[in-house]
Design brief:
235 residues, alpha/beta
Length: 235
């Protein structure tokens, strides 16, 4: 089987639980570390699917790797090669397919409930799950591309996920591990402090205190989504 390409845009925002999920199923994957200077592949034919992780930048920034990534996403969708995006990754897929990325009304940082939409596509992706505590760390949001079906919403961000067929874009993070949360809290300490008066921003202590309770459930949700996504991979 061809490998799944996983695009990393910041050293602390790797594939997390997704890597464990793929390794357990002996599904090959290849890390493309944009943050370390790896080149964007010129085509998609060598990959079974494309996954895009998070990052602190905006998809609207003038960065040299963004245009070729957007072109690669459009090529993959045109060839029916599944794409999957987490946070920044979801925004990249959205922008590639014609959606708008803009500032969310508030920054959303920490654990927060998301509600699964009541439609056939949402039920197919999430099964019996109707709501769960996702992990959030974003200040921007996407609109839905043409033909996309809305899947998730939260109190502070209406568009938390969408799907088009086998393609899935998430605004929230389902790939989290405990080590990732601790690292993000350290790196993002100033951002947390700046948002301390916002009901949408949790303290580092609160985020880490809730890990033992929330991470197993989040892993179940991620497993549900990843299982459906890998079912559409090209051989």
């Amino acid at each position: 089987m061809k490998p799944i390409a996983i695009f990393r845009h910041a050293s602390q925002e790797g594939p997390g639980y997704l890597a464990e999920f793929l390794d357990e199923r002996q599904l090959p994957w290849q890390l493309i570390a944009i943050d370390a200077g790896d080149a964007v592949p010129s085509g998609v034919d060598e990959f079974a699917g494309l996954v895009f992780m998070g990052g602190p930048m905006s998809v609207n920034d003038d960065l040299p790797w963004i245009p070729p990534v957007l072109a690669l996403i459009r090529d993959a969708v045109a060839r029916d090669i599944p794409v999957l995006g987490h946070c920044l990754g979801g925004q990249l897929i959205s922008k590639a397919l014609g959606a708008t990325i803009s500032r969310n009304p508030v920054k959303e940082i920490g654990w927060g409930n998301v509600t699964v939409a009541d439609n056939d596509s949402a039920h197919a992706w999430f099964g019996a799950i109707r709501n769960f505590q996702a992990f959030h760390w974003h200040g921007e949001t996407f609109t839905l591309p043409q033909d996309a079906t809305h899947l998730l919403s939260s109190a502070y961000c209406v568009n938390q996920a969408w799907a088009i067929g086998k393609h899935l874009a998430l605004q929230c993070h389902v790939e989290m591990t405990g080590a990732m949360i601790v690292s993000w809290c350290e790196i993002g300490a100033d951002e947390i402090l700046a948002g301390r008066d916002s009901p949408a921003v949790q303290s580092a202590g609160e985020m880490q205190r809730r890990m033992a309770e929330e991470l197993p459930r989040l892993r179940d949700v991620a497993g549900q989504l990843y299982t459906r996504w890998v079912a559409g991979l090209r051989g």
